[in-house]
Specification:
This protein is an alpha+beta fold and about 1200 residues long. The protein has 27 helices and 53 strands. Helix content is about 35%, strand content about 25%. It is globular.
């Protein structure tokens, strides 16, 4: 074939590949379309690509005759063995560390000495002048570093907990923590990366930006190392172009700006494979030993690198079959390389042997085989394989930490070149490097395929593919270059060089733009890096003064705060103990609250009216935290009591003197404040430090009376009076009146009780505030059963998981709640762990069981007035949370205000709590078949995998019209199928609409069908008979929406998954409202996957990224919410209402359908893993027919199942 024909075929294949990738990236093509186009492009490319010259056979490794080599090698091995024996006893033994480093240096030196007379190098000839080569490489590496290091203080925003955990480890190394090769940080990881961070801290200071700088440097070094490997394989010209493409890779750029040890994986792979291939080619001891050492070093990095030695082993076995002379001539060097790997691995390998469970714990935890066992088939593996293969060109990593959610990992140009490179490598698989590529790809792809299904596809575990993909792209470029060079020399070479250089620049600029203008500022990405905790850390780090800090419980122990603010000294805020402050130490006081803490602001303002309150928000206006700064003088001013002095004994008129008295303890023998007779009224609060008996004494030269919580406790008409009562811990209203009829004699109020040995009430127990009779009496007990004697009894103004006792503990709050009007009340608790609410002895909220943060509701009709209230909460282990919410008739959903809670109308609490509330029932447990309020029976299933009418390929959405006809979104076949109520196929339509990815369906009241098309980012409209009517929601900025619903008026609701919002549209497509904006708080979403509309107009929105199902009113105001099982946002849960009033939700990862009542109580569940009748591999879409029949799609089983109510 003539060179020009070859060039035309090669360029034609490249052009067709670019078309295929553009179509896949824009979702204009289905995956099948893309595969077919890529197959055609690959065929053209292979037909035209000129063959590469075969490598000549080499001579054996140089024979080692120098005794110094054997001496050095033997000394290195001996030092390694000695180091290992010392490491086994003590990882931090300085001698062991010295011997370990010495063993590596000695053995490496022996390898270099063994190559005193190496054979000739057979690298491709140089085509670029040496000066230009180094200049261009320097520019590429510097640009790679610049784009990785630019604004690392801002992009990505914040510092995710795993990143800051690495930073904390690095600080501990600098503080002298003994060496260990492995720590349980972030569920277990090797420590090499954190030692690198520690080095950067030593050089540049400890900060988030410095940590990210370390990753950026590793990323830039990887780019430089990649060039040398690519040059050895494909020559300097193609290597420069491939290196430029890697420098601009958005995938590599992202991880070069994250503080993950995974960024070391590509670097160690490049070094290991470069030295391995060079050693096999040039027969050099040093290269083979360096390859082994690079493998050993890589094992000190990311857990996923553990697959790489297996890749090398498989490659060498295959090479022994394909190139037996090569392995026969180099096996001593390969053994030396293995020894070098073991020497570098020494301490970590011993750790793995000694603590295998810790070393392998994370790997076992994330294995997909847990799901395979649960399902009973291999569908999770095949699903992972499909997603992983599609992540490069079609649908990328959905995790906001690692990617622009869902965007392909490769840009258009690189994606096209990679496919052509893959085709060429497979066609010429016997070449040594191509054989390595096959095992490299299989080994690293397996890491993504065999990981937990809900995380697939994952760009983090498959990060080791980055060098391989860009080597394949370089291979394709080199073949294009050679075809062009053979057909068009001279000026043509310059033209092609300019074109390819422009391509590389355009690729890099496009990737940089996508990262900085789209990915880094995407709300979901912004929210992924612990923005609240990072903002708190930055705020604390920037304080110019050193106040006494009280930190909200939600923020405690978060690594972002500890790292950024350098382990700030703080106390965990306990509302019941720290407001107002009991034990001031002369410093200003700073309270840091989470956004929910806004509910407590009125209480702060009551105690500290001059406090500086500041709301801290992010760039989108979402609240991050609240800071409340209280000056020391205001803290002091809050203590004592207010005395009003009147000139008359009757205390009439305006007081002559008003002042703050630190105590009620005076001797007015010589200097009374007024001339007798006069009267005084003292008001304030008495702090009972704990529950118990308190004896009060009043003394005055005249009459004096003391009232606590409105009850008269002690009185005297001249002299001394005393009385006692039992008080719960906390604040109690205090009133003292005195009439001083004559000068002389002491005046005081004294107390004796728990913690108070007797004498005048000290200032630390008097507060200058008016205490209302609001709140509840809290009974605190050890254990989780609310039984046994209380360890503490106190007045609590808020329902809160107070840390008075160590876990496990239980709290029971008792008192009364005031219903302002007669009507239906909704009560709810958000708790971690269990909680219950009883009103007038009736169980209203059942949120029992051991669980994470979970919201549950219940309803009760209350008459206006006061009702007995009992709230129970228990905490076992881990995080804790407890909130009491209500929705009064006609009112909003809110935390029950203090004004609605009453301790008991001024009566002191009994010594023991009232009789226990009725025993709380056990929380319902889902089972199959359905139980509880809804019972269903399997009726029929239809569909099988295929493209014929009635068959499905990955069916997703399902809808039912008023006549009971069923519409199914046949996603993989890019069409909609309509079935009769009995399952008979009626119609197949959608081809004329050019559907890219029909995902969800909704039938309007007038019979029109809406089809959500995420890849087109809009909605297709069809008539009742399937006629295509056009597109809606065009140009409104949707980004990969996954859920659709229609209300009774025909308005559309779209769960804009990638856009982090829920939109309400008119039937004509105009946007009416954003009912759910982006964020993590109540009524906000991060990546919603579906929305459902209830008959009363209220909305239910499911968001698997937040693990939350929320209920909103018709205006989008938050009414409630509860946690849901984990799922990813592509295979996310969907919703439908049943005529019984229950909300049905698919649980894809749990292989079942769940039914909830209006309060979020799980009342039924059915399904199970499998492919039998009534079983699911991964249920996604759900709809309910007019007769209560439930339709569920199962994309992995390629079918629809129908269930009928019993």
């Amino acid at each position: 074939m003539s060179p020009m024909k070859r060039l035309v075929l090669v360029l034609g294949g490249l052009a067709l590949a670019v078309v295929a990738q553009r179509g896949l990236a824009s979702k204009a093509f289905t995956p099948l379309d893309g595969v077919l186009l890529y197959a055609a492009a690959s065929a053209l490319f292979l037909w035209g690509a000129p063959p590469r010259p075969q490598e000549e056979g080499g001579s054996p490794l140089p024979r080692v005759r120098d005794r110094r080599v054997w001496a050095l090698a033997g000394a290195g091995l001996a030092c390694g063995i000695a180091a290992g024996s010392l490491f086994w006893r003590n990882w931090a033994d300085p001698l062991a560390l010295a011997l370990w480093v010495g063993s590596v240096l000695l053995f490496g030196g022996a390898a270099f000495l063994a190559d005193q007379e190496p054979g000739p190098r057979r690298a491709p000839p140089r085509e670029v002048p040496r000066r230009w080569e180094w200049l261009l490489l320097a520019c590429i590496v510097l640009l790679a570093f610049a784009v990785r290091a630019w604004r690392v203080d801002l992009y990505p925003n914040g510092c995710q907990s795993d990143e800051c955990n690495n930073g904390m480890d690095a600080l501990w190394w600098l503080q002298g923590m003994p060496y260990t090769p492995f720590r349980l940080t972030n569920e277990g990881q090797a420590t090499l990366f954190t030692y690198i961070i520690a080095l950067f801290f030593r050089l540049f200071g400890a900060s988030v930006a410095t940590m990210r700088l370390a990753s950026a440097v590793v990323g830039a070094v990887t780019v430089g190392a990649f060039y040398f490997m690519a040059r050895d394989l494909y020559g300097d010209r193609a290597a420069l172009l491939g290196t430029a493409l890697l420098a601009g890779s958005r995938w590599h750029l992202t991880f070069s700006r994250i503080v993950y040890e995974a960024i070391l994986t590509p670097l160690c792979e490049v070094l290991a494979f470069w030295f391995l291939l060079r050693g096999l080619r040039d027969r050099r001891w040093r290269d083979l030993v360096l390859a082994g050492m690079a493998l050993g070093l890589g094992l000190h990095t990311y857990t996923a690198f553990r697959a790489v030695p297996l890749v090398v082993l498989g490659f060498l076995v295959a090479l022994a079959l394909v190139e037996r002379p090569t392995v026969r001539q180099t096996w001593p060097g390969l053994l030396a390389g293995a020894a070098g790997m073991l020497l570098v691995l020494n301490p970590l390998g011993l750790y793995a042997v000694r603590y295998p469970q810790q070393f392998m714990g994370r790997t076992i935890h994330i294995s997909v085989f847990h799901e395979v066992q649960a399902v009973g088939n291999w569908s999770p593996v095949w699903s992972n394989l499909r997603k992983t293969l599609g992540m490069f060109h079609y649908q990328g990593d959905p995790a906001s930490l690692h990617n622009l959610p869902g965007a392909p990992m490769l840009d258009v140009w690189v994606g096209a070149l990679v496919v052509l490179g893959v085709a060429y490598a497979l066609w010429h698989w016997r070449r040594r490097e191509h054989l390595l590529y096959l095992f490299w790809a299989a080994g690293v792809l397996a890491l993504g395929v065999l990981s937990a299904a809900h995380e697939a596809p994952t760009s983090r575990r498959t990060i080791g593919l980055i060098p391989l993909l860009y080597l394949l792209a370089t291979l394709a470029l080199e073949r294009v270059w050679q075809a062009f060079r053979a057909a068009w020399r001279g000026r043509g070479e310059a033209v092609l060089t300019s074109f390819l250089a422009t391509l590389a620049v355009a690729s890099g600029v496009g990737n940089a733009y996508t990262y900085f203008a789209k990915q880094a500022v995407h709300p979901a990405v912004w929210a992924a890096y612990s923005p609240n905790e990072s903002a708190v850390g930055r705020y604390l780090a920037g304080l110019q003064r050193e106040p006494r800090i009280f930190l909200a419980q939600e923020f405690q122990r978060h690594s972002a705060i500890h790292f950024i603010a350098r382990d700030p000294e703080y106390e965990v805020f306990n509302l019941a103990q720290h407001l107002p402050l009991r034990d001031p130490d002369g410093r200003d006081v700073l309270y840091i609250l989470d956004p929910v803490g806004e509910k407590a602001l009125p209480l702060f303002q009551r105690f500290y009216p001059q406090a500086q309150v500041e709301f801290h928000r992010d760039r989108y206006g979402y609240p991050l935290f609240i800071s409340i700064w209280v000056p020391a003088e205001q803290v002091t001013a809050s203590q004592g009591v207010t005395g009003r002095y009147f000139a008359s004994p009757e205390g009439e008129g305006e007081p002559v003197l008003v002042r703050r008295d630190a105590q009620i303890a005076f001797d007015w023998t010589e200097e009374p404040p007024l001339k007798p007779p006069f009267s005084v009224q003292w008001e304030g609060a008495f702090l009972a430090s704990e529950y118990g008996d308190y004896t009060f004494e009043v003394r005055a030269p005249g009459s004096m009376a003391l009232r606590i919580d409105g009850l008269e406790v002690a009185r005297t008409e001249g002299g001394i009076g005393a009385g006692h009562l039992q008080l719960a811990g906390g604040f109690h209203d205090l009133e003292v009146t005195a009439v001083i009829t004559e000068a002389g004699g002491p005046v005081h109020v004294a107390v004796r009780g728990p913690g108070l040995p007797g004498g005048p009430v000290p200032t630390s127990h008097l507060y200058n505030l008016k205490v209302p009779p609001n709140g509840l009496i809290g009974y605190y007990r050890r254990g989780t059963g609310w039984d046994g004697p209380p360890q503490a009894i106190q007045v609590d103004w808020f329902i809160f998981p107070n840390d008075i006792l160590p876990a496990p503990f239980s709290i029971e709050w008792r008192g009364k709640i005031r219903a302002p009007v007669t009507g239906l009340y909704t009560f709810g608790t958000n708790s971690d762990d269990g909680s219950y609410v009883y009103i007038d002895g009736q169980l209203v909220v059942d949120n029992g069981g051991s669980h994470g943060s979970q919201y549950r509701e219940g309803q009760i009709v209350l008459e206006e007035g006061f009702h007995d209230l009992v709230v129970q909460y228990f905490q076992e282990i881990g995080s804790r949370e407890m909130e009491l919410w209500w929705v009064p008739p006609g009112g909003p959903r809110e935390i029950v205000p203090l004004e609605a809670l009453w301790t008991g109308f001024g009566e002191a609490p009994a010594a023991a709590p009232p009789a226990a509330a009725p025993a709380a029932p056990a929380p319902p447990t889902p089972s199959a078949p359905a139980v509880g309020a809804l019972e269903v029976a399997f009726d029929r299933a239809w569909g099988s995998q295929g493209a014929e009418p009635g068959q499905f390929q990955d069916p997703r959405g399902v809808a039912v019209d008023a006549a009971g006809n069923v519409y199914v979104a046949d996603t993989g076949n890019r069409r909609v199928q309509k079935f009769a109520p009995d399952g008979a196929l009626l119609q197949v339509f959608g081809e004329d609409a050019d559907l890219k990815e029909p995902f969800d369906l909704a039938v309007a009241p007038d019979g029109h069908l809406y089809v959500l098309d995420p890849q087109s980012d809009n909605v297709a409209l069809f008539g009742p008979d399937g006629e295509y009517l056009g597109r809606l929601a065009v140009g409104i900025g949707l980004f990969r929406p996954r859920g659709l619903a229609v209300d009774a008026a025909g308005n559309l609701y779209i769960a804009d998954t990638g856009g982090s919002r829920v939109l309400k549209l008119a039937p004509t497509g105009q946007v009416l409202a954003e009912v759910c904006p982006a964020g993590d708080g109540a009524g906000r979403v991060r990546q919603p996957t579906d929305v459902a509309v209830a008959s009363d107009g209220s909305l239910y929105v499911v968001d698997p990224s937040l693990r939350l199902l929320q209920r909103l009113d018709a205006q989008g105001r938050y009414l409630g919410g509860w946690t849901i099982p984990a799922a990813n946002t592509f295979d996310g849960p969907h919703l439908a209402f049943h005529p019984s009033g229950l909300l049905l939700m698919t649980e894809p990862e749990g292989h079942q359908v769940q039914a909830y009542d209006a309060g979020g109580r799980l009342v039924a569940a059915w399904g199970g893993a499998g492919s039998g009748p009534g079983q699911f591999a991964k249920p996604i879409g759900i709809a309910v027919g007019p007769g209560g029949e439930v339709l569920v799609t199962d994309p992995l089983n390629h079918r629809v199942q129908q269930f009928l109510p019993k």
